[in-house]
DNA sequence: TTCTAATATAATTGG
DNA sequence: CCAATTATATTAGT
């Protein structure tokens, strides 16, 4: 394909040569031709080799710098994983709304929280006969559980971490409690995370 | 950097050598030692050089195959991103539940549905609703555990993973809820989005 | 020891 | 000159 016959022998430069080249590179990563020629004489290489070495050396430097930049950028932007955080916050808000609505309904029905607890976990399907199947409670308790996962990490270091989420203490502050602003509220909450669509 | 001492001369193999090596490689990419030795004699290289060549040749082959596989896999699978789809679906479920609750409330309060602001479920959190230690809240909270796993292992650096636990939400029996378009802010579920990469 | 995967380095190619 | 790629070698880990 592309193999020329003019390829001679390649030669790894020895430590002395490398050392001198590195020293020169530290002073000036892009020296003039004359300097390179002089250097070539000193280390016993062809000028072309010295030029090539400087090019490769600059390329290596650039790669390292780029990697470093990328790392720090990623470290600063990626850490909280803001995208997932936002989605989780979104879900928390929705759950908060559900909870409040449920409280309101319970009050309306004048229930005592202690007895006749039809809103426990969904395990009590033994005898569901309630005078009011109340789509509400069942619906609420129905399931807010979720499992969302994916693990691609083969042998990497995916460290696990517990999230003590559910800080529902979030001040949702009712500045605008007008009538059917259900939608507006939800609209807001989903609006502050446009990224998800 | 890592240049050890005894780096001597390297030698590019000539066309004849390469040609023979390639022919042999096509027949058997991993020949036995004797064959490699015989080959080395035929082309005038050290056995070690021939072995190295085969190793790197295999590496190159594998890289190309892997790249091809990755490309097609990525092309076909990359888009939906099930994690976020799941989260979005979860949000939709929550909203559906809210809708049901809201409908129920409207019916209970009957006529003033249009201007009903009696239960604007939102803002409280500051005062009010103290008399009820909210057993319900706990119940709800217990159901909120999520398990979210993140996996960007491209660079073998899974930043973090959060675990809650629990199971998949049962599908809501929404055969009756056909008015899905309330606050239609969820509907554009757009599965495209590569925004997060 | 052999193999794989990852990396280093000298050289080439094309722009 | 630079970016990208190639070809050989070397090293770490199994």
Automatic annotation (TrEMBL), chains A, B:
Coiled coil recorded as keyword: yes
Under the heading InterPro entries, the entry gives: HD (IPR001356), HDZip_class_I_plant (IPR045224), Homeobox_CS (IPR017970), Homeodomain-like_sf (IPR009057), Leu_zip_homeo (IPR003106)
* Annotated Polar residues bias: 113-124
Cellular component per GO? Answer: nucleus
Q: Name one Pfam family in it.
A: HALZ
| UniProt entry keywords in alphabetical sequence | Coiled coil, DNA-binding, Homeobox, Nucleus, Transcription, Transcription regulation
Q: Where is the Homeobox domain?
A: 4-64
The main location is nucleus
Question: Which GO molecular function entries does the Swiss-Prot or TrEMBL record give?
Answer: DNA-binding transcription factor activity, RNA polymerase II-specific; sequence-specific DNA binding
Coiled-coil positions are 56-104
Q: What residue ranges does this record give for the DNA-binding region?
A: 6-65
A Gene Ontology BP annotation from the UniProt entry:
positive regulation of DNA-templated transcription
Taxonomic superkingdom = Eukaryota
Cellular compartments annotated: Nucleus
The segments labelled Disordered in the record are 106-136
Explain the purpose of this protein.
Answer: Transcription factor.
User: Would you identify the family this protein belongs to, as annotated?
Assistant: Belongs to the HD-ZIP homeobox family. Class I subfamily.
Q: What is this protein called?
A: Homeobox-leucine zipper protein
């Amino acid at each position: 394909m592309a193999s020329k016959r003019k390829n001679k022998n390649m030669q790894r430069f020895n430590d002395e040569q490398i050392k001198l080249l590195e020293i020169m590179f530290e002073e000036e990563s892009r020296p003039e031709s004359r300097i390179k020629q002089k250097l070539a004489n000193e280390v016993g290489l062809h000028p072309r080799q010295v030029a090539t070495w400087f090019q490769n050396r600059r390329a290596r430097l650039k790669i390292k710098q780029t990697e470093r930049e990328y790392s720090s950028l990623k470290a600063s932007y990626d850490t909280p994983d803001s995208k997932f955080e936002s989605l989780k916050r979104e879900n928390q808000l929705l759950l908060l709304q559900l909870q409040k609505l449920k409280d309101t309904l319970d009050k309306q029905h004048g229930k005592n929280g202690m007895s006749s607890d039809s809103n426990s976990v969904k395990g009590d399907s033994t005898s569901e006969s309630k005078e009011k199947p109340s789509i509400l409670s069942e619906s609420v308790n129905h399931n807010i559980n979720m499992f969302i996962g994916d693990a691609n990490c083969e042998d990497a270091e995916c460290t696990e971490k517990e999230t003590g989420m559910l800080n529902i203490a979030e001040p949702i502050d009712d500045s605008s409690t007008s009538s059917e602003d259900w939608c507006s509220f939800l609209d807001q909450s989903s609006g502050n995370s446009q990224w998800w669509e």
